[in-house]
Amino acid sequence: MKKEKTKQFDVLIIGAGPIGIASALQCAQRGLDYVVLEKGTLTNSLYNYPLNMRFFSTSEKLEINDIPFISSNPKPNRDEALEYYRRVASSNKLNIRLYEKVERVEKKDTGFKVVSDKASYDVLNVIVSTGFYDIPKMLDVPGESLPKVTHYFKEAHPYVMQKTIVVGASNSAVDAALEIWRKGGEVTMVIRGPQIGERVKYWVRPDIENRIKEGSIKAIFNAEITEIRENEVDLQTPDGPATIENDFVIALTGYRPNFKFLESLGIELAKDGTYLPSYNPTTMESNVKGIYLAGVICGGTETHKWFIENSRIHAEIITKHIAETINTRQT
């Protein structure tokens, strides 16, 4: 495909999730010429959430730019969130280009050249709001590449009447285990720690604990998968090695930001295992002047620290600083 000619913008936003959309709204309000590039669909991460997923937050905490989010439930679900952010983007005629992947960002004397798979852009500033849902944390065991293994859960129907292992003890793992069990699947949870995760939704925790206690869902704590085969899975448990029959493995062990992409931008990452990116919390500008970080990627591997309701403020902080910087240059 022949690429378009180079476009010029004050701001290029990478990622059209809720925080990317919020950043676009703020750019428009401040008179900044902007464009948003998204390699997938609008709010791509939310789209890939389980069909029946319900947010921990209430709808008003998911709102951006004071645009009301009306939900028929105290805790909105995936479809309501998709409709809300879709309506915000379309009604405000935001300049969002979907299915356009950023390939590289090159530093120039003034600003940056951003090259995508469809065009190139000369921009003064870049906002990186790419989330973390694209790269799963792997088990790194033999057999993980088998077709029966997935790192995402969409719905329970494929696992009806099947022996399914759910790896993990987070909200996503608990939700998957409960939904599969309710649809008639035989569920075994393999959990590295001694208990269900501390951050599991308070209204769900009693449900999963009771199902485990009564034996409806089997849970093997302090255990890890050591090998996956076509019809069996090997485990290391507190009682020693074990082998169980198995049809499917859903490894919901978490996800991480694209650290290689951040490093390619010149952003420094902490060397202590957290991979925390270097940025100024008062402006959200990274160690690379003109590149800003927004949303969950600010947390490195600690992806639970930033989410929509506490990072939507990043859009205002960043665009305020960009507008002030541009005005200073012009005066």
Describe this structure in words.
It is a single chain. Helix 1 runs parallel beside helix 9. The protein is elongated. The chain is α/β, with parallel strands linked by helices and 331 residues long. The strands form 4 sheets. Strands 1, 2, 3, 4, 5, 6 and 17 form a 7-stranded mixed sheet that branches. Strands 8-15-9-10-11 form a 5-stranded parallel sheet, with helices on one face. Strands 12-13-14 form a 3-stranded antiparallel sheet, with no helix packed on it. The chain folds into 2 domains: 7-135 and 255-330, FAD/NAD(P)-binding domain; 138-251, FAD/NAD(P)-binding domain. It is built from 9 helices and 17 strands. The mean pLDDT is 94. 25% of the residues lie in helices and 23% in strands. Strand 10, helix 6 (205-214) and strand 11 (218-220) form a beta-alpha-beta unit.
**Per CATH, what is the topology of the largest domain?**
FAD/NAD(P)-binding domain
Q: Architecture of the largest domain in CATH? A: 3-Layer(bba) Sandwich
- Taking Cα atoms only, what radius of gyration do you get, to the nearest Å? 22 Å
Helix content: 25-40%
Helix count?
Answer: 9
Instruction: Please state the structural category.
Output: alpha/beta
Q: What is the total tally of β strands? A: 17
CATH superfamily grouping of the largest domain:
FAD/NAD(P)-binding domain
What is the name of the CATH class of the largest domain? Answer: Alpha Beta
- Main pleated-sheet profile: 7 strands, mixed
Order of helices and strands: EHEHHHEEEEEEEHEHEEEEEEHEHH
The proportion of strand residues reads 15-25%
Which spans have pLDDT < 50 for at least 5 consecutive residues? none
N-C termini distance? 42 Å
Shape, please?
A: elongated
Mean pLDDT: 94
How many domains? The number is 2
